[in-house]
Design brief:
- This protein is about 50% helix and about 10% strand.
- The chain is α+β, with helices and mostly antiparallel strands.
- The strands form two sheets. Strands 5-4-8-7-6-9 form a six-stranded mixed beta sheet, sandwiched between helices. Strands 1-3-2 form a three-stranded mixed beta sheet, covered by helices on one side.
- A hairpin with a 5-residue loop joins strand 6 and strand 7.
Length: about 500
Amino acid sequence: MTSERDKVRLIFGLKIKQLRTELGISTYELANRTNLSPSYLNEIEKGKKYPKTEKLFALAKALNTDYDTLVSLRVSKQLEPVVELLNSNILSELPFDLFGIEPGYFLEVMANAPTKLSAFISTLIEIGRNYDLRVEQFFFSVLRTYQAMHDNYFADLETEASQFLTEHPLPKTSIDCPDWLTQVLTDEYGCTVQVYDAQTHPELTTLRSVYLPEKKTLLLNDKLSVEQRAFTLAREVGYHRLNLTVRPLESSMLEARSFDEVLNNFRASYFARAVLIPRQPLLDSLTQLVTLPTWDNDRLLALMEPFAVTPEMFLLRMTNLLTSHFGQRELFFLRFNHGPDGRFRLSKELHLSKLHTPHGVARDEHYCRRQVSVTILNELRALQQENQWDGRPICRAQRITFATNGNAYFVFSIAKSSPPSTDNSSINIGFPLTDELRQVFRFVDDRAIPETLVGETCQRCPITNCEVRAALPVVLTKQQHVKLVLGRIEELRGV
């Protein structure tokens, strides 16, 4: 975002403005003292101009300082957070253009209110340290905002995927997809695909794939299912097809290197899903599904069968079309992981229109055991422990009402194991229960769909007779106590 010269000009301008403010003089008075025009001084303070040597001496004298101190990059304590921000890679990584923000405008805000902005920046840094927020978490938050702004539908990627399928027709059977995509990578992009296992690369067993750009080689974990292999190969085609050279090399990003990596990984993944699940066939199936008067778990699973995709890929692809073609722009997407330790972790989320319940604000708390996103994982784990699970995904739906705020949603969930990890995962899409939803989804009020009062987390839940509570409502109790105290103070005040 900023060059070294930009940084020097801005830091210098901030110092001029701070020194002038500390002396209590206006821009016009400083202009009189230095024989410089007020407009020129204004440009200096905004970081747009840097004066010549003779003007620097005049400024130093007028501001009761010396030349060396004035031109030094050392700043006061109040400006240190701004300088720290400028010297970091954060500004260069922030995708201002995605949100229609001119970088120069941001710099002007910094120049106009450096002290307040310094305090704000310090606060953000402190919050990040206290909550152990990593840079990649920040990047993914920016990406989710970008997705929400576009209703998670990107016409340019849809067009690119359609063109690819015109040139390379999808195989008739999903099991042939990995070989089909391997051939594309080999013939068109000169890539080599190699399978590895715990003997050949024991350090990589937790990853699904690794790309070696110097050798143009994609390493695939031998534990992947057909669907996982197909997606990994399709995403690799996406990187090459879309010319996305700034990209993560591993399937799961291990460290944050740039926002471009995060964005390009999303674009290649979107392309992969659009190739493996072409828009028109899915759109036709969804059009039939939403007009049915009753809900059928197996019917939703049947929609997924023709495609070489996992439940997560399928439901993410559904969100693209549910927003763009069915007007459901208030949905949420959640992925819960259930590990051998028994904990339920919200590992992925996307909220369109607003922040829905539940969300990742309470990652250290116990998510409600009544929600379908969790009950389906308990059901799957029980089937596995009793050796009764046949390996196929299971699907469930639920109408839920949150006891804390009365918000009501229709949610459907698909659960499956997630190799090569030992976790199970549930993939969930939820919709606020509105008249508009009922006009589109005829099955929403089907009486066969369970209807349940739920909480967000056990620590915040007011349901007193919950038979599956995993923790006491300590957060709720504290909130209620604070409310009681404040109410009593208001009574004593007589207001």
